[in-house]
Amino acid sequence: MRHVTSLPTTVPELGSFACPTCRSALFRDGEHIRCGGCLATFPILRGIPFLLAGDSQERTTVLYDAVARHYDTALPAHVMAHYRRKRLGFVQARQPQGDLLDVGCGTGHLAAAFAAAGYRVFGCDASVGMLEVFRERCPAIVAAGRSDELPFPDDRFDVVICVALLHHVVEPSRVANTIREMVRVTRPGGLTVLWDHNPLNPYWPLLMRRVPQDDGSERLIPLRELLAPLPQNAQVEVHRLGFLPDFVPAPLLPLASWLEALLERTPIVRTFAAHNVVAIRKP
Predict the structure, then answer these.
(1) Superfamily assignment of 63-281 in CATH?
(2) Which of 79, 89, 148, 277 has the most CB atoms around it within 10 Å of its CB?
(3) 198 three-class SS
(4) Distance from CA of residue 76 to its chain's centroid?
(5) Cα distances (angstroms) measured from residue 127 to each of 55, 103, 147, 149, 156
(6) Closest by Cα among 208, 56, 68 to 127
(7) Is 278 helix (H, G, I), strand (E, B) or coil?
(8) CA neighbours within 13 Å on the CB side: how many for 240?
């Protein structure tokens, strides 16, 4: 049985979650959360359900707990705002409302934009420290969990998205299982979006050496690896998006955004865009 470090006064609605091991329903059992199927118990850490199977925390969890409070200052605010608008617009054009799960949600700066646009937002991240910042920013339902063992029932969400997560998952089997899990918890007809670094973009190695969340253990995931685990009968869109670097001054943002849109429409050149974006319509 796991050690419970604190007991919150309130717990998010457990009906939103499922056991990460057997996917059965969860219920409150005194100071714990218990699975009604396999009877596994999970702690509640600072008011956040800690729904990771097994007792060990991963190295990346410790890293992200340490950088949580200054994570959002790693890139200029106007550049982050540009990419938030880009991602919000991409999803709104394909699924304009509904329940949305942000996998590897971090501090919730993207999820908060979806919440402001009318989505009902849920967040999942392995770092309790990041989720604490998330809750301060956005009134969402959150849980600590692994991306390849999502603590949610099948067919639960209208939209499931991950941004800049998969290159931290690293291991090919875990990357594939993360993608399968994201599709699993998407409802039939719903939208799953994978948005991650493009290995063909030459600027990533330079930028990743400067941001606190990257420690050299990352692996940039090629497009073919994003596509391999997808259901054969799913409708799949593939895009190469993003040419706006972090060093663009705020006054030049309109011009840089116009140039970015032009490059994204240019054959061959767009192959080297910053991000691989895969949108999956679950059959």
Answers:
(1) Vaccinia Virus protein VP39 (3.40.50.150)
(2) 277
(3) coil
(4) 20
(5) 14, 12, 11, 15, 22
(6) 68
(7) strand
(8) 20
Question: Whole-model pTM?
Answer: 0.91
Distance, CA of 111 to CA of 103 (rounded, Å): 10
**Token pair of 179, please?**
């993608």
Separation between Cα atoms, residue 198 and residue 274, nearest integer Å: 5
Structure tokens at 58: 């991963």
Report whether 142 contacts 79 (CB < 8 A). Answer: no
**Are 243 and 264 a contacting pair, CB within 8 Å?**
yes
Interacting residues of 233 by C-beta distance below 8 A, sequence separation 6+: 283
Token pair of 48 as six digits: 């956040």
| pLDDT per residue as tens, the chain (283 positions) | 333 333 333 444 678 899 999 999 999 887 789 999 999 999 988 889 999 876 445 555 665 666 656 666 678 999 999 999 999 999 999 999 999 999 999 889 999 999 999 999 999 999 888 899 898 888 889 999 999 999 999 999 999 999 999 999 999 999 999 999 999 999 999 999 999 999 999 999 998 888 777 777 899 999 999 999 999 999 999 999 999 999 999 999 999 999 999 999 999 999 999 999 999 999 9
Rounded to 5 degrees, φ, ψ at 121 are: -105, 140
Domain extents in the chain: 1-54, 63-281
Number of H helices, E strands in the chain: 9, 12
